[in-house]
Design brief:
Length: 428
Amino acid sequence: MLTLNVVPERSLGCEQWEFIVGMHFSQAIAIIQSQVGYIKNVQVLYNDTNPLDIDLVLNLPQDGIRLFFDPVSQRLKIIEIYCMKLVKLKYCNLPFNSPEVLPSIEQIEHSFGATHPGVYDSEKELFILNFRGLSFYFPVESKFQSGNTHKLGKSEKFPPGSSPLVSRMTIYYGSNIEQAYAPELPLSCYHGQLYLQKAEILRGECYTRGIKLSLLAVNRTVIGNKNKLISCPNVKTMRFSTNNRRIDSKIQFEREVLLGHTAQDVATALGAPSEVFYKSEDKMRIHTPNALRRDTDTKSDYFFNYFTLGLDVLFDARSHLVKKLVLHTNYPGHYNFNIYMRCEFKLSLNGADIDAYCHWDDICKQLTPSERPVVLNRASSTNTTNPFGSTLCYGYQDIIFEVMPNNLIASLSIYGDGRPYQSESEHA
């Protein structure tokens, strides 16, 4: 049984990990994966047909916990403990729910202090006690409800020993559960990574130049005193403080990645990639000219994968220039779901405004893509089974749209001509 600390309006967790309101879905999955053997039997619930209409849910039935993620931002909105008997809970390191400490109304008021009068839902026969960012739900029969909800939260309304126990608890951001929403990514969840605010696809005359990224990062300032000097062999003398105070602040800046840029250009703009992947095969190669010609060069094209930006950058093996950009939308029901965060791109294409939430049918009303799509069935080299089925790839100028069965865009692939980047005047 898990023993977890509750922080109202913020988190549920322990010393090793925390589910934090506002964290991304992939970060919650990473926590669960790190706790193999402790957290088991995890379920992912989503609407396959309309994934933007209903919350994305992580259900932990063995621990009685549900995590609700906003379907658009994919950040954590509500933490729900729906079975109090399956988990031990503390507040300020003092238990208020365990086999030894029952979560009665008196215990909750003792642990969390005074709050506004509770609310009684006669239809569901639930008494709800609200704190900021925290709500407790007590099953109470209507015969105990007399219109005075303040007294209902007190022991005199119930016979001795019959005070109701918490049946459910929610943690959220805001003053009440009805207005709960997923806040911006907390600074504690940045972990030294860059995150994408928005991306603008840069277009020229019937061709794509690249992409402009609005990025977010954490700037860490360390303020301290009692400075000491340390010198090490072959290392410049460094100054450090024995009494430091760390101040984190969010910064925003823009970077461009253009087709024809060098690998050094991209690394300078975005930093080191999350991973470098060397292509061993190209399933789309058969649709290119000279596809059957034998290539005696063993060099492989390679990707810079930026998972937190929802971006892949493909480099030519010989020239080391950017030849393709891949933007991922990270919809549940796609083979690559949870590998990338959603790339919030915007594309203006021949009068059509396209973003990560557009439906393919709506795009086709404004554009005329290739009539015959290419069927793409993704599978790994170790597992040829794809439970999500194939997707369809449609071409338009130098862009390929990968479309899911639910009519949403899974990815956008932008191709260059393999030449070094040229300014618009040089391109013309």
